[in-house]
Amino acid sequence: MEDPKLEKQFKSHRSTVTSLSFSSNTKQLVSGSLDSCLFVWPFKPQIRAYRLVGHKDAVYSVCFSPSGHLIASGSKDKTVRLWIPSVKGESTVFKAHTAAVRCVDFSNDGQSLLSSSEDKTIKIWTVHRQKFQYSLNQHSNWIRCAKFSPDGRLIVSCSDDKTIKIWDRNTNECMHTFYEPHGFLNNVAFHPSGTCIGGACTDSSVKIWDIRTRKLIQNYPSKYIFHLLLN
Fold it and tell me: Could you write out the DSSP letters of every residue in 185-204?
């Protein structure tokens, strides 16, 4: 296998870049930054990048919708914004959290959006009507990350309370809690099969749990893991 090569380099943010997301057609990349802005980067050299301005504080999370027609962002300003990725930079503001929003994620059908926050809650929103639906409220500390399962029936979340929770969207209840005694998780992700979850832990490891047997099945020691994607 050849060593990876740098294909492109984008520079416009004025501070640390915190989050990235590719559009489903891989023709665009969106980035969020501590400078409170988003940039949408087209891969065609003749098309210029454009900046999305609206948040009042650092942007912690960005995510393209499955269709690529929308972008969600979560910010330290306690809001979620839903953007139309265009030069005009139009957005709708969602307000329900009482602290910084750490993560946003679309369901695979594009109908639902979740946001997780330092206020210890996960909020679920309808994308079409752009309305708040309900909250999930059993964590006792900041929620670093939350993600939909591939089929949209479950949600996984990780928190500074050193737990990983699996939520059933039919009942809106926590169906199982995994405990991580050695440190909290920065990031979680579902395997595409929906049967396993992975977590990036502050004890410098990546852990894999089987949600059917509810057991830890892999533990990979590593160093400084902040984000995770399972394939």
Answer: EEEEEE-TTSSEEEEEETTT
Residue pLDDT, tens place only, 141-196:
999 999 999 999 999 999 999 999 999 999 999 999 999 888 889 999 999 999 99
Are both 65 and 104 inside the same structural domain?
yes
Helices of type H across the chain = none
Domain at 152, CATH number: 2.40.10
Q: Half-sphere exposure of 189 toward its Cβ, with a 13 Å CA cutoff? A: 13
Give per-residue pLDDT as tens, 193-215. 999 999 998 888 899 999 999 99
Query: Cα 146 to chain center, whole Å?
Result: 6
9: amino acid identity, one letter: Q
- Cα–Cα dist 175/153, whole Å: 12
Average pLDDT, the chain: 92
Given this model, what pLDDT does residue 222 score?
67
In a domain, 226, yes or no: yes
Residue 192, number of CB atoms within 10 A of its CB: 11
Give the domain extent around 198.
Answer: 147-231
Determine the Cα–Cα distance for residues 87 and 8; give it in Å rounded to an integer: 21
